[in-house]
Amino acid sequence: MVVQTQRDETIWYKCEECGLMFDDQSDARKHEGNCEAEGPSYIQ
Questions:
Q1: What residues have CB less than 8 Å from 7, skipping those under 6 apart?
Q2: Of 5, 15, 22, 38, which is the most buried if we count CB atoms within 10 A?
Q3: Mind listing the pLDDT tens digit of every residue in the chain (44 residues)?
Q4: How many CB atoms lie within 10 A of CB 15?
């Protein structure tokens, strides 16, 4: 599930499964469909 959060006056979309954050809601939704809930495999 993707949740909306605000940090530093910017709205972010966070994947609740792995914690990865996106500045674009559509990117977050695409990620959600592929998330393996093990955390990102790359450095943010």
A1: none
A2: 15
A3: 899 999 889 999 999 989 899 999 999 999 998 888 765 555 55
A4: 20
Secondary structure (3-state) at 31: helix
- Cα(6)–Cα(37) distance, rounded to whole angstroms? 22
CA distance 21 to 26: 12
Q: Tell me, what amino acid is at 41?
A: S
Task: Please give the Cα distance from 39 to 20 (Å, whole number).
Answer: 7
- Residue 43: phi and psi, rounded to 5, are -80, 135
Tell me the two tokens of residue 44. Answer: 């943010």
